[in-house]
Amino acid sequence: MSLYPAAIQLRLNQSQNAGAIENARACGRSASFLCGCSVGFSVKLGEDRKTIEAAAFNSNGCGYMIAAADVLAGTLNGKPLRDLHSLDGDELFAAVENKLIPFPAERRQCADVCIEALRATFADLRARRCEEFAGEKALVCTCFGVLEETIASHISERSLKTTDEVAAICNAGDGCGSCRMLIQEMLDARREDSLI
After folding, report:
1. Could you give the CA distance from residue 59 to residue 68 in angstroms, rounded to a whole number?
2. What is the pLDDT of residues 13-55, one digit of tens each?
3. Domain residue spans in the chain?
4. Average pLDDT, the chain
5. Domain 139-195 class?
6. Are the beta carbons of 2 and 9 closer than 8 angstroms?
């Protein structure tokens, strides 16, 4: 008899995304203070640097943690960075729940640790992109490497009014979302200048 519900046991027995990625672009890890287990993710980007070519995980955790990590890694494979929606915790947990019915509420922390590790992975990706940037101009969007002057140029030349319009033109703000506030400030400044 299994210790886990059928969907969890199946993922545990047939994990599709466990292991390490050679030449990973970014890695991240998190641990549970409740049980001491940890999980880490690694991702590799496609040649366009805008799509996740592969994602994998490793964990010393229980079946719930391993199953949740396997689902999350699987949802990333082939996905454009702009579709990550700032790694929204509720969306990510919904993806886990949809594949691992029933996922017991008392084991939610196992999935939460996986979500934290995933966020750490993409924070590592942004940090690495910043390190690569050696220019003298301001880098606003680290997910896609978009300069402030590029965004300002698009706002001015195309009379863009929203952060979504900026994202549609040059991808800035379409990844993790951390630069959307800066882009909004640029839009507001442009609007104020046009009123003068």
Report:
1. 11
2. 999 999 989 889 999 999 999 999 999 999 999 888 889 999 9
3. 6-132, 139-195
4. 90
5. mainly alpha
6. yes
Cα separation, 51 vs 78, in Å, equals 6
CB proximity list for 131: less than 8 A, separation 6 or greater: none
Global pTM?
0.75
Nearest to 59 by CA among 44, 49, 71, 69: 69
The CB density around residue 135, as the number of other CB atoms within 10 Å, is 10
pLDDT at 196: 64
Decide which of 87 and 107 is more confident: 107
Bridge partners (DSSP) listed for residue 147: 139
- What CATH code is assigned to 6-132? 3.90.1010.10
